[in-house]
User: Which sequence fits this backbone?
């Protein structure tokens, strides 16, 4: 039942919605739709938004074999290549004006990673060597410009001078390094290694798993730390429920792609612990709370956290089939999503967030630089692939 419903939702709701945001005049995809479903065709286009859309259509095409999806991916690739890539200094801008002019020229490691993720998948979907070469170029850029011996640095100006990490810092802190960026570099390198088998990418995947295990994962609290100083010391008491359940399945995926028994043995107890802890402390039987800061739980039900909950618990059950409570949790969150997170209005997609009772927070946009088909579209693809 879950698989059938998810496929219908993917093909009849999510895919048509994002196809409808294609900008035929200036390229890429429109960057903003407000809560009242008003589309702003002159809004800033986030490069993260557009790389995630490229990733989504590439993977949807590979699963569904619908040629129209490859056409969307080609459209996204053309925009990334022409406008998002800094031809002079290398790297991907943070955002673009609606007409293709650079808007925010910050170079963020997180943003470079998502472009690698998208380009690697697009290469797999299209066979275009140019896309793979761009992904390799960005890999080399991250490794030479954005990394130190401890981990990945975060934010840079257009010429790659380090700047404050205001874009990936939240909750009142300014972080030198973040679990979030590390996770998505790992995710991007997993995809790049899957399609390229570059030994230097494999080496970095192993290196990052060591960092997760030894610096990010907190075995006493059964969670990941989130924000760090330059030496990878945690600077805030924060438990990000969505990131932990997402990390569990993304690391499991990375271990599979890496194919090293050593890391399977090293990471399995960690991903199992993260999944079990989220089930215990964040899942209320229907949905996942957002996060817990200094002992205070944020009860908002955020769209991406619910989507990652479905995948993460489904993954946890598949890794440990005796834990049927995880399968039930995935199914229960899906029911909550259907009832409360999906926006039933014509011409919409999912609400950004609802309260614990499922009432939407009015005013949060339906589309903006972070709100895209990456989490919920990927959830659908993962459910179908795991059937």
Assistant:
């Amino acid at each position: 039942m879950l698989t059938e419903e998810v496929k219908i939702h993917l093909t009849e709701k999510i895919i048509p919605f994002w196809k409808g945001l294609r900008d035929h005049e200036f390229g890429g995809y429109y960057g903003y739709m407000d809560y009242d479903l008003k589309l702003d065709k002159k809004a800033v286009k986030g490069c993260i938004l557009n790389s995630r859309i490229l990733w989504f259509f590439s993977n949807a095409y590979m699963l569904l074999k619908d040629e129209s999806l490859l056409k969307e991916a080609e459209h996204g690739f053309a925009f990334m290549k022409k406008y998002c890539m800094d031809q002079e200094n290398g790297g991907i801008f943070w955002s673009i004006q609606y007409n293709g002019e650079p808007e925010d020229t910050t170079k963020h490691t997180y943003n470079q990673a998502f472009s690698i993720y998208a380009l690697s998948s697009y290469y797999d979907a299209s066979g275009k060597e140019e896309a793979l070469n761009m992904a390799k170029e960005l890999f080399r850029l991250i490794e030479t410009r954005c990394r130190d011996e401890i981990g990945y640095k975060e934010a840079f100006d257009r010429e790659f001078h380090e700047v404050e990490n205001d874009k990936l810092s939240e909750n009142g802190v300014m972080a030198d390094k973040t679990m979030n960026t590390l996770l998505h570099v790992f995710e991007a390198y997993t995809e790049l290694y899957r399609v390229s088998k570059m030994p230097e990418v494999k080496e970095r995947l192993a290196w990052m798993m060591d960092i997760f295990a030894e610096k990010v994962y907190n075995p006493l609290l059964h969670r990941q730390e989130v924000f760090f100083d330059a030496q990878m010391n945690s600077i805030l008491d924060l438990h990000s429920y969505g990131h932990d359940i997402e990390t569990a399945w993304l690391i499991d995926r990375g271990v599979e792609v890496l194919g090293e028994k050593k890391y399977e043995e090293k990471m399995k107890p960690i991903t199992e612990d993260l999944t079990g802890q989220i089930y215990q402390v964040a899942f209320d039987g229907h949905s996942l709370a957002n996060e817990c800061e200094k002992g205070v739980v944020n009860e908002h039900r955020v769209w991406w956290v619910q989507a990652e909950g479905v995948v993460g618990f489904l993954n946890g059950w598949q890794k440990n089939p005796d834990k049927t409570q995880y399968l039930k949790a995935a199914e229960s969150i899906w029911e909550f999503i259907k009832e409360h997170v999906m926006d039933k209005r014509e011409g919409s997609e999912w609400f950004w967030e609802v309260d614990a009772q499922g009432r939407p927070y009015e005013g949060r946009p339906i589309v903006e630089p972070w709100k895209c088909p990456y989490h919920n579209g990927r959830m659908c693809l993962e459910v179908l692939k795991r059937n």
Remarks:
- The longest helix spans residues 261-281.
- The first strand starts at residue 45 and ends at 46.
- The mean pLDDT is 97.
